[in-house]
Amino acid sequence: MSNKTEFHKKCFFCSKEIEEKKTLEHIIPNSLLAKLKIKEQIISGNFTTQYSRVKVPAHSVCNNNFGSEYENKILSIIEDKESLYELINKNNQLEILYSPSNDNISIITTWLTKIYYGLFYNDLLKTNNLEHKDLCKEIISSQNFKLTQKSYQNGYGFNLPSSLYAFKSNKNDFNLKTLIFPSSIMLNLEGLILILCIGDGYLTKNYLNTLNIDNLRKYLFENDKLNSFPTDLFAFSEITAIRLNIPKQPSFMFTDNEMINLSLNTFVDKPEEYYKIDIDNVEFQRNEILKSFGVKLE
Predict the structure, then answer these.
(1) Are the beta carbons of 58 and 13 closer than 8 angstroms?
(2) Is 35 within 8 Å of 75 (Cβ atoms)?
């Protein structure tokens, strides 16, 4: 069986083979695309397609789990951007025991995770570029995505414990960016910038605490007034550069009725020194990421 046939017949959500007539799940709801007026916008890169055509195979029951009721929740949550911004920034919990939840933080985390992996899954099925196809296969075959699917199979939701951030900008143009390493996604929804470090076990959030995040937010606010300043891309690059420099990897364990986030456990003396990051290297890598997005640095 070819790789293409294998992934065409597997459910995006639960990874099991689809023996019934498969359904296709829109990665970004058409209702949201229409609201943002980007339904026909083209995604550029190694594979070019319209956002409205980004779909993945799924069992009908899995598809229904992400059907109109779920989409309506997403639309309702992001409609009130001020409340969502406040909610994300007040959420300082770093859960160790992870169980099913329908709170807004979990819904947004699931949604961004779905978009991230869905984009690469769609590309894997459709691109003729062999190099890009291999890259997409590597992402879809990654341990994080397999654990995400396992979390879904076990009823904990289609996501892993992930650091979620929200920022504001006066620049309202829709923008969507992903990074492969570290696995992360950024969405600018009419000036509300959402950033998710996917499956990092809250490692980034644990480092980027109240003081650090306040300093970053202040810097973004002061520079957002400049038309040339890429607020969303700078925030995304800064956070992902920090994640790259945290000398620790996420770790998860499944039991019969819950998932345990072991990522924050430490068994070393003076962990604040052992896990200290190199600020100069963060700045260097942030600038490299910005350049990869086409930002010209002065």
Answers:
(1) yes
(2) yes
